[in-house]
Specification:
This protein has 210 residues and is mainly alpha-helical. It has six helices and five strands. It folds into two domains: 70 residues, no CATH class; 127 residues, no CATH class. The strands form two sheets. Strands 3-4-5 form a three-stranded antiparallel beta sheet, covered by helices on one side. Strands 1-2 form a two-stranded antiparallel sheet. The chain starts with a helix and ends in a 7-residue tail after the last strand.
Length: 210
């Protein structure tokens, strides 16, 4: 099985495990593939045995084992596997654009997804109004697993895109006149200034209320 076939198999198994109804044949194929390289893998061994038996009573355990085997194999779900993650990132982009506007910039930024050869499984990335993207790898799909991590990740990538457009720090702490950074603080995503021991400048999406 080549890498592309294995990835497609993983996505099918993930979809079944996500709904609690894994396909027995796919689960067995996944377990067998893992056991070829790791014969002593206990989770893959149990998954293979349950897949052969394949009873309704065993499906919840199969789903849990499938998730464990996928994680151990390094499988990373994409937006096609978890559409809700992209929704969280898009919601985050709308909040970050509030701060773009509140800081006096004239245009909003946009969120895009890089398509890979398998479909909508690439990373997302922010792009400024003049087409300047954020730097690095962008925003991994898993960042959208919850609203706070989504907010921080999108804010960071948007900040990169805006600063590459302006060639200056953005946004800037109004007290210390230095660039701030997106981070999680408690249960919220915030703009954080590192001066004088560090302090919250504003919640991300609430720059005008700082």
């Amino acid at each position: 099985m080549d890498d592309a076939d294995f990835d497609r198999l993983c996505r099918r198994v993930y979809a079944g495990a996500r709904t609690g109804v894994p396909d027995c044949t796919d689960a067995f194929d996944l377990a067998a593939s893992v056991l070829e390289s790791s014969p002593a893998d206990a989770d893959a061994t149990e998954l293979a045995l349950l897949s052969i038996d394949c009873t309704e009573a065993g499906r919840p355990r199969m789903a849990a084992l499938a998730r464990a085997v996928l994680e151990a194999a390094g499988f990373e779900p994409g937006f096609a596997d978890e559409p809700g993650w992209l929704v969280h990132l898009e919601d985050a982009m709308r909040l970050v654009n509030r701060d773009v506007a509140a800081s006096g910039l004239p245009h909003a930024c946009r969120l895009h997804v890089r398509d890979d050869e398998l479909g909508l499984n690439g990373n997302a990335y922010a792009e400024s109004w003049d087409g300047e993207p954020g730097t690095g790898t962008g925003v991994y799909p898993r960042s959208g697993a919850d609203s706070v991590s989504a907010l921080v990740a999108v804010a960071e990538d948007t900040q990169d895109a805006v600063m590459h457009t302006l060639w200056s720090a953005w946004p800037v702490c109004p007290v210390h006149r230095r660039g701030v950074h997106a981070r999680q603080h408690g249960e919220a995503g915030v703009w954080w200034c590192g001066s004088e021991g560090g302090h919250v400048v504003a919640a991300i999406g609430a720059w005008e209320d700082r």
